[in-house]
Automatic annotation (TrEMBL):
InterPro entries: AAA+_ATPase, AAA_lid_NorR, P-loop_NTPase, Sigma_54_int, Sigma_54_int_dom_ATP-bd_1, Sigma_54_int_dom_ATP-bd_2, Sigma_54_int_dom_CS, WH_DNA-bd_sf. Keywords: ATP-binding, DNA-binding, Nucleotide-binding, Transcription, Transcription regulation. GO terms for molecular function: ATP binding; DNA binding. This is Phosphocarrier HPr/sensory box protein/sigma-54 dependent transcriptional regulator.
Length: 648
């Protein structure tokens, strides 16, 4: 879990802002807070530090160490308490009391901007002298400074963090998409309730609405609140800009403001919460609306699709910078064979759920390609895709790489500790490649993460919840490893919730030509390949699968001088797979392939019978020597017992 630290000037402000932060991000982040007037003993380490005001910035920054982001909060007066000010008699002199000249003036300006200018404000801070008798004092939490003999003191409490700063914090925590709507409802709910309250006191109405408007104008989104008849109660400048309205729109009907019945219908529908895409004056907007239960008032926010795309792009750029992105989609998986189309189909379905996946297949068959495509078609597509390869991860580093560590966890540990790959992948997908190479100790740890969905850094004592989808891959037969006691059975079943088995290239020979054309055209658009070369390559058994084919294309394109790749452009050892493959051997291979397709064993007796049916007489002994030859060439593997001969 990320750590957010608040530094405030005074204890009173700290308490109020801490509570406010907890209400917005409690549960998503661990919130800690300090007040400078109470003294700060240790250096502060956190993911985000929020400084309550720029006035304490220089002092606060001295306490910070190893922080990824510092945010200076923008603050607004606490609108819950502000209503008390409306009842101060007109024309009254009011002392505004705060801790220094700048903040005092800032708050007075704010109150005036809110429309609360029916009284005369007199600034007062330590060092000022009170020259006349004054009946009212207002202070944002600085009661101790208020002169003794003032009869009415209104403590409006410390100013709160504004919604723009809240949005910035949510973005830094990577939860903007999921949490922004909730934060907006929470923020607007209070404001609109206040509006409703004042709507009943008609003489105070304008002032209250002015206040709400200032708060709403500070928001980046366009906002609108209306009653169940569609009468607008409050809106902000951004909304007027989007709909192209001039003058005051409060009191008008939403029908006058929005053209097009579909938007009106949507806004007035009884759905408690709904979201949809609409076009307004040629631009696309996502409109989200909620009905506030207690007041039966609806709030709608409008976000430009362009801005959202921009935000998404920004987040993606960040992932690209770190290399945590998935390069491929299903369109990049080439092949026309029934096998590959079937697996692509399954893969697309798997992408739509959020379950753990195990991909098995020989080296180079495209396991990482599929994992990447699944991520890119899943709901996690805009979040990180982090790949870990267990075959190249040294045992002694694996744990710290995966789970991270705290500062001082071991000699050489970085200052401030380090996030592990599971934490880096939070919200997205982690691809555990060559999982069969993970040690038993690591398997136990991985099992725990999969079961509990949480990790603990090395040397740490905090439990960090993790929201990641796991896709594992292996070129080993995990079932066999389980039987040999080299792979934990419980982990095997945890991983194999969804399962994909990628067939080797020699079992989908139809794809060879398509893949050759594809990789050649990627290197050199105009270059062709002669059929005789394709035929040789179809006869080859491709132990390195598509990776080997891709590398071969690189070679052929590099050595080819003409406009067509011919036999002479093949590496020498490949020429051996020319159609020189003797007819008798080819016949036997074809028979084995046919039997495999029908799900039958290829015993020597069966091969002998089929040959006979085709009018070719080969004894079982002759078939045995030919199978031996084919085995030497890497085409088949003879198994003892009833299984017979298998194609490789
Ligand atoms: N169907 C395909 N279409 C296009 N390219 C493919 C296809 N299958 C694999 N490739 C390419 O072949 C190479 C190997 O693929 P990938 O790394 O996904 O295989 P892998 O099974 O994960 O291999 P390993 O087990 O060795 O890690 C990559 O460059 C990949 O883009």
């Amino acid at each position: 879990m990320k750590k957010v630290v608040l530094i405030a000037g005074t204890e009173h402000t700290r308490e109020t802002l801490h509570e406010q932060l907890e209400s917005y991000i409690g549960g998503i982040a661990q919130v800690e807070s300090y007040a400078i007037d109470k003294g700060i003993k240790d250096k502060i380490k956190a993911d985000i530090v929020i400084i309550s005001t720029s006035l304490i910035y220089n002092e606060a920054i001295l306490f910070i160490e190893g922080v990824s982001k510092v945010i200076v909060a923008r603050r607004v007066l606490n609108y819950k308490i502000i209503e008390n000010l409306l009842f101060i008699p007109e024309g009254e002199k009011v002392l505004f009391v705060n801790d220094c000249k700048e903040t005092t003036q800032e708050c007075i300006d704010w109150l005036k901007k809110l429309g609360l200018n029916h009284v005369e404000y007199i600034p007062y801070y330590p060092g000022c002298e009170l020259k006349e008798k004054i009946n009212y004092a207002i202070t944002p939490g600085e009661i101790d400074i208020v002169p003794k003999d003032i009869a009415n003191i209104i403590d409006i409490g410390p100013r709160l963090i504004d919604i723009v700063t809240i949005a910035e914090i949510l973005k830094e925590l990577n939860v903007y998409d999921e949490k922004w709507e909730d934060a907006t409802i929470m923020y607007l709910d209070k404001i609109v309730s206040l509006a409703k309250k004042f709507a009943d006191i008609s003489k105070e109405k304008t002032r209250a609405f002015n206040h709400i408007k200032v708060v709403m104008d500070g928001m980046k989104e366009a906002v609108l609140a209306f009653d169940n008849k569609g009468k607008i109660i409050v809106s902000n400048e951004n909304l007027k800009f989007i709909v192209g309205a001039k003058g005051n729109i409060v009191g008008k009907s939403i029908r006058e403001i929005f053209a097009g019945n579909n938007i009106i219908e949507f806004l007035l529908s009884c759905d408690k919460e709904a979201s949809n895409l609409f076009e307004i004056r040629g631009e696309k907007y996502i409109i989200t609306k909620f009905i506030l239960d207690k007041d039966n008032i609806s709030i709608a926010t409008l976000k430009s699709q362009k801005d959202l795309e921009e935000l998404e792009k920004q987040m993606l750029k960040d992932l690209y910078r770190k290399g945590y992105y998935a390069k491929y989609s299903f369109e990049d998986i080439i092949g026309n064979s029934i096998e590959i189309n079937y697996i692509k189909d399954i893969g697309r379905k798997i992408a739509k759920n959020d379950l753990t996946v195990l991909i098995e297949g020989e080296s180079g068959t495209g396991k990482e390609l599929f994992a990447s495509a699944i991520h890119n078609e899943s709901m996690r597509k805009n979040k990180p895709f982090v790949a870990v390869n267990f075959s190249s991860l040294p045992e002694n580093l694996a744990e710290s790489e995966l789970f991270g560590y705290e500062e001082g966890a071991f000699t050489g540990a970085l200052k401030g500790g380090k996030k592990g790959l599971f934490e880096q992948a939070d919200g997205g997908t982690i691809f555990l490649d060559e999982i069969g190479d993970a040690s038993l100790k690591l398997q136990t740890k991985l099992l725990r993460v999969l079961q509990e969905k949480e990790i603990m850094r090395i040397g740490g004592n905090k439990i960090i919840p993790i929201d990641v989808r796991v896709i594992a891959a292996t070129n080993k037969n995990l079932r066999e490893l389980v039987e040999k006691g080299e792979f934990r059975e419980d982990l095997y079943y945890r991983l194999k919730v969804m399962y994909i088995k990628l067939p080797p290239l020699r079992q989908r020979k139809e794809d060879i030509k398509v893949l050759l054309d594809y990789f050649i055209s990627k290197k050199d658009k105009g270059l062709k390949i002669k059929d005789e070369v394709v035929n040789i390559l179809i006869n080859y058994n491709w132990p390195g699968n598509i990776r080997e084919l891709k590398n071969l294309v690189e070679y052929m394109v590099a050595v080819c001088n003409g406009s067509e790749i011919d036999k002479m452009d093949l590496p020498l050892d490949m020429l051996h797979y020319d159609n020189m493959l003797r007819q008798d051997l080819k016949l036997i291979l074809d028979i084995i392939e046919d039997l495999r397709k029908r799900g039958e064993n290829a015993s020597r007796r069966k091969i002998e019978r089929i040959c006979r049916e085709k009018g070719i007489n080969l004894t079982e002994q002759m078939i045995r020597t030919r199978l031996k030859e084919l085995e030497k060439m890497g085409y088949v593997k003879s198994q003892k017992g009833r299984v017979g001969t298998m194609l490789l």
